[in-house]
Amino acid sequence: MTAETTTVHVMRHGEVHNPTGVLYGRLPGFHLSEAGHGMAATAAQWFGHHRPITHLVASPLQRAQETAAPIASTLGLDIATDDRLVEAGNQFEGQTFGVGDGALKHPANWWRLRNPFRPSWGEPYREIAERMLGAVHTARDAARGSAAVCVSHQLPIWVLRLTVEGRSYLHDPRRRQCGLASVTSLTWAGDELVRVDYAEPAGPAGKGTVGGA
């Protein structure tokens, strides 16, 4: 008998309204920008053309919940919330990040960067990987034989991908393949992961958009 196929689409939220350019992390009150809402709506239509999606879950943060909302409306699903999909903890949260005009202009902050393998400035990569794997496995089990969508954040999604692909956690954040409103899709045959795909249903972020977490 052929094992049933299940896909979990792990989506990054859309662009966030962040005029001061801080690392907002897990701070409350950071919502999608107008462009971000457009990204979420476009992604919702994209999901509508895929195999039946029967489960939708999002990080508890406002930007993830707002990204999930048009998907829920388009597909007729409720939004479940899973705290394990939340943004990674970061000691620079609420600050701008740079050498000349941000947190790194203060030598007292430099010690936080002493170990990029862990990393020393925030939640350990292995802890991020463990909770993200738990969240996507729960979503997979809820959508056996069909598909699920999990809305999360850039670093947790990227650490998840590095983990399932057996790659090193040490990386250049500027080179993460995890654009705004992008979708990293994990497909299982039974409990065996058989493929990882990547898509940008809302298109690549333009030069005028804001990156963020």
Automatic annotation (TrEMBL):
Q: What is this protein called?
A: Broad specificity phosphatase PhoE
Give TM regions: none
InterPro entries tied to this protein: His_Pase_superF_clade-1 (IPR013078), His_PPase_superfam (IPR029033), PGM_Phosphatase (IPR050275)
The record's CDD domains line, in alphabetical order, gives:
HP_PGM_like
Q: Where does the record locate the signal sequence feature?
A: none
Q: Name one GO cellular component term.
A: cytoplasm
Pfam families (alphabetical): His_Phos_1
GO molecular function, one example?
phosphatase activity
